[in-house]
Design goal:
heterodimer, A: 116 residues, mainly beta, six-stranded mixed beta sheet, four-stranded antiparallel beta sheet, 12 strands, globular, B: 111 residues, 11 strands
Chain lengths: 116, 111
């Protein structure tokens, strides 16, 4: 079945450091890929997504590129802020619009702590 | 729009008690789902529904029941709570165009 593997946390960075959180996936067909962010005490919010190979999703300075050849969707940000401290989840979904029920398969989450 | 609303936010149950976690959305989304979040395991799908009157099992359905009598509501029932059901529960709805919207979660403790 589908699966998502992301790097273990926690990741601790100083403010303005470069962030990479690795994510790889296993899926049949052509999944859509997502990064969700969960701030303390809150639900999940969509951070960015990519629906086909070589697409780059971006939002709030975060970027991730859908790499089909390496089955990866690594999250990057050039300069993190304290306010980026949260748990980040990589996820995939089967192809939109197939008429079948779509579901998200999540990685285990990576906690990011940014310090001054 | 309120989005996806979950109640209660916190709940403590004794083993064997029953309860219903409520989920409501006001976006007219056909697809709704329930996930549980456990440390080190990410979110796992419990049940989902593609429309009123239609439900199906996800990855971890045992111990949970659902029904979908209206488009807006998708309650999750625990018939006989067990300590293994201690978790944070998230309800989500979806459209193909805009993706998933998650509720803020219900933190359940079974003692």
């Amino acid at each position: 079945g589908d699966s998502v593997t992301q790097m273990e946390g926690p990741v601790t960075l100083s403010e303005e450091a470069f962030l990479t959180i690795n994510c790889t996936y296993t899926a049949t067909g052509y999944p859509s890929l997502f990064w969700y962010v969960q701030y303390p005490g809150e639900g999940l919010q969509l951070l960015l997504k990519a629906t086909k190979a070589d697409d780059k999703g971006s939002n709030k300075g975060f970027e991730a590129t859908y790499r089909k050849e390496t089955t990866s969707f690594h999250l990057e940000k050039g300069s993190v802020q304290v306010s980026d401290s949260a748990v980040y989840f990589c996820a995939l979904s089967d192809e939109w619009g197939t008429g079948t029920a779509s579901k998200l398969t999540f990685g285990t989450g990576t906690r990011l702590q940014v310090t001054l | 729009n309120a989005g996806v609303t979950q109640t209660p936010k916190f709940q403590v149950l004794k083993t064997g008690q029953s309860m219903t976690l409520q989920c409501a959305q006001d976006m007219n989304h056909e697809y709704m789902s329930w996930y549980r979040q456990d440390p080190g395991m990410g979110l796992r799908l419990i049940h989902y529904s593609v429309g009123a009157g239609i439900t199906d099992q996800g990855e971890v359905p045992n111990g949970y029941n659902v029904s979908r009598s209206t488009t807006e509501d998708f309650p999750l029932r625990l018939l006989s709570a067990a300590p293994s059901q201690t978790s944070v529960y998230f309800c989500a709805s979806r459209t193909p165009l805009y993706g998933y919207t998650f509720g803020s979660g219900t933190r359940l403790t079974v003692v």
